[in-house]
């Protein structure tokens, strides 16, 4: 780990890290019958993120490159999420990753980056499920969001990939319709706790850019148009988590690895 990252971690972690257990966000009861996820090869070295790819409704799928030995994750989610017809997803087809989505509303827009690491299987939670989805051990693995859909109408709508009792879980909540979330994992022995941003707050400093990647793990709030979004961005050699909202309760969380 570079001296710059050590310095940033020392300055930012006490003030900026959000808890990753159930103390600040209900997670529900884990599914006791969920199968254990297969272990991925241990990733000892740091993972450098690619440049950012963007997609907006009305555009064709954005190619992200080969899927073999590479994993991709969302770094921005925004727009008018009014139901199951609104989605942003990273998908795999013909040996390549793609960023795309759908919308019958306005302003749906997403962004993604990739790292050189083998992705796990895809996990999915939908609001019809009564328990979180197990994604396997948290030892040497980090998980992140790769797809979001549904009606996000306020604080009651949220989706999250989180760690609890040594395991990764995928969960959410909704009093609306069509809410779902997808996620994948990669091997990493060096991932941070969660950083959080909420509307009205300043962007959160997370980590140094060189040799590092940061991905969304949580999205919540009322997404009514292009003015509502959460995003991870690069500035002056550091990763930040921020966003904007003209509505209520929009917030996001992320981890770096």
Short structural summary:
This protein is mainly beta. It has one helix spanning 3-16, and strands spanning 17-18, 53-56, 62-66, 71-80, 82-93, 96-102, 109-115, 123-126, 133-137, 141-151, 153-164, 167-173, 180-187, 194-198, 204-208, 214-222, 224-235, 238-244, 251-256.
Structure, described:
The chain has 257 residues and is mainly beta. Helix content is 5%, strand content 54%. It has one helix at 3-16, and strands spanning 17-18, 53-56, 62-66, 71-80, 82-93, 96-102, 109-115, 123-126, 133-137, 141-151, 153-164, 167-173, 180-187, 194-198, 204-208, 214-222, 224-235, 238-244, 251-256. The strands form 3 sheets. Strands 1-14-19-16-11-12-9 form a 7-stranded antiparallel beta sheet. A 6-stranded antiparallel beta sheet has the order 2-7-4-17-18-15. The protein has a 6-stranded antiparallel beta sheet with strand order 3-6-5-10-13-8, with no helix packed on it. A hairpin with a 2-residue loop joins strand 5 (82-93) and strand 6 (96-102). The longest helix is centred in the N-terminal third of the chain and has 14 residues, at 3-16. It is globular and about 35 Å long. The N and C termini lie close together (11 Å). The model is unreliable at 1-44 (pLDDT under 50).
Q: Helix and strand layout, with pairings?
A:
Layout: H1 3-16, E1 17-18, E2 53-56, E3 62-66, E4 71-80, E5 82-93, E6 96-102, E7 109-115, E8 123-126, E9 133-137, E10 141-151, E11 153-164, E12 167-173, E13 180-187, E14 194-198, E15 204-208, E16 214-222, E17 224-235, E18 238-244, E19 251-256
Antiparallel strand pairs: 1-14, 2-7, 3-6, 4-7, 4-17, 5-6, 5-10, 8-13, 9-12, 10-13, 11-12, 11-16, 14-19, 15-18, 16-19, 17-18
